[in-house]
Write a structure and sequence with these properties.
Layout: H1 2-18, E1 36-44, E2 53-61, E3 64-70, E4 81-84, E5 89-92, E6 94-99, H2 114-126, E7 129-134, H3 142-147, E8 158-161, H4 171-182, E9 189-193, H5 205-217, E10 222-226, H6 229-238, E11 242-243, H7 254-262, E12 266-267, H8 271-278, H9 290-293, H10 298-303, H11 307-336, H12 356-368, H13 372-379, H14 381-386, E13 403-406, E14 420-425, E15 428-429
Parallel strand pairs: 1-4, 1-5, 6-7, 7-8, 9-10, 10-11, 11-12
Antiparallel strand pairs: 1-2, 2-3, 5-13, 13-14, 14-15
Bound molecules: zinc ion.
């Protein structure tokens, strides 16, 4: 009895000696608890597609996940800071594999600045989008913003970028242009292969093949904007690394699905891009959604309800209503066929609301017929892989601690991703207020 008391006393003294000055150790503190935060009690969806962990423990230290599992499996060192998340759901921060960052202010483009880039990344973060792949319109300062993600205080979305969209009329010119953009140090090269429903000239197969070859010579992946099935096949045969939009002219076929799988290329639906072309012909339902209104600019909402503008949307949006229906069916076919889907929205241009549109995208993916788990994996673990990141997207030991806490379970209904209680990036809580 006496010996045991002595041992406890010694352990207690050691704990006091090991803790920081001024910190009171009332119990024997485990030295391994130093700097450790334990998020306890939540249902954890890890982003790999594995079943959710009930009554989970997520251990975070120095901005990274140290351990994750059920309360039975993961011991919590005594003295670790505890965050009680009983009744909540935790899932990895969402990844938008096709966004645009830094150019839009209100309903205008042309406002690219570091301040605007950081504002957009903070906005995405408040909506639980913790990584954004900006596919075009990026300027050189994007490289500095990207590099700053290593800060231990990071509390805004991580940025990947493509630089300016590459375009030229000949293989020689596009090769030179790719080399120029590659010198910016982007994560992707981006091209557009589209005639805008017959309204403009489309990049030829010779030119896009040269762009792809030049991107690969610079050891960069190339992302392709496209609309037509025939172009999607041509681009995949030529070696594109990312399909940045849905095929929207006709149903996809087995040949397209085989090309995606054989080349390990991800398919990014951007369903909300179609929505944005016609939804403002009248007052959108989401103008009454508190989750939208929390960040909405009343002046922008008012401008989008001007009769002249609504009239213009009625004139130009009609073909894209049909395109959306094709895109929804094609997403289901591509997913059922076994190709990898990467959540992306094309948000960022005027009236494509960053943060909110990603949640709208998830709802449309459900409308297409994907399950909540398929949608979450496409927005986390698979999305990370599709943009070449192996340090985000899942909650596994060693990954960056980017995650979302919701009050309702998105596996019950994907719209429950909108019940955000908190967002964490590199283990830092994202500030709620603007
Ligand atoms: Zn885009």
């Amino acid at each position: 009895m006496r010996n045991r008391t002595t041992a406890v006393l010694i352990a207690g003294l050691l704990a006091v000696a090991c803790s920081a000055p001024g910190q009171q150790a009332t119990e024997a503190t485990d030295p391994t608890a130093q700097g450790l935060t334990a998020f306890v009690g939540a249902r954890i969806i890890d982003g790999t597609g594995a079943d959710a962990i009930e009554n989970g423990v997520l251990l975070v230290r120095d901005g990274r996940v140290e351990a994750v599992g059920s309360a039975d499996e993961v011991p919590i060192p005594l003295g670790a800071e505890r965050v009680d998340l009983t009744g909540r759901t935790v899932f990895p921060g969402l990844i938008n594999t096709h966004g645009h960052v830094g150019d839009t202010l209100g309903l205008e483009g042309g406002h690219y600045s570091e301040e605007n880039v950081l504002d957009h990344l903070a906005l995405y973060a408040r909506y639980g989008i913790t990584t954004v792949n900006s596919l075009g319109g990026d300027q050189a300062l994007a490289g500095d913003v990207r590099a700053a993600e290593g800060s231990p205080d990071l509390d805004r979305a991580r940025l990947l970028f493509a630089g300016p969209v590459v375009n030229a009329a000949s293989p020689e010119d596009i090769t030179a242009r790719v080399n120029e953009v590659a010198a910016m140090g982007p994560d992707f090269i981006k091209i557009r292969v589209d005639d805008n429903l017959g309204g403009s000239r489309k990049m030829s197969p010779e030119v896009y093949a040269a762009a792809i070859a030049a991107a690969h010579a610079n050891e960069l992946p190339l992302a392709s904007h496209l609309f037509y099935l025939e172009d999607a096949k041509g681009l995949l045969e030529a070696g594109t690394d990312f399909v940045a939009h849905s095929v929207r002219d006709q149903p996809v076929d087995q040949e397209l699905i085989d090309l995606l799988i054989e080349n390990d290329v991800c398919y990014c639906p951007t369903l909300t891009r179609e929505i944005s072309t016609f939804v403002y012909e009248e007052r959108p339902d989401f103008f009454d959604d508190p989750f939208f209104l929390a960040e909405a600019d009343p002046a922008v909402m008012e401008a989008l309800q001007e009769p002249d503008r609504q009239q213009r949307f009625r004139r130009t949006g009609a073909p894209y209503k049909e395109a959306l229906q094709v895109a929804l069916a094609n997403l289901k076919a591509v997913s059922d066929g076994g190709a990898t889907v990467a959540m992306g929205t094309d948000s960022g241009p005027p009236a494509r609301f960053q943060g909110y549109f990603e949640h709208l995208e998830l709802e449309l993916m459900a409308e297409a017929g994907l399950t909540p788990m398929q949608i979450l994996v496409a927005s986390t673990g698979d999305a990370a892989r599709c943009i070449g990141r192996d340090d985000v997207g899942t909650l596994e030991a060693g990954k960056l601690a980017d995650f979302v806490v919701t009050t309702a379970n998105p596996l019950d209904a994907i719209t429950n991703t909108r019940t955000i209680e908190s967002v964490w990036i590199s283990g830092n809580r994202v500030p709620d207020a603007r």
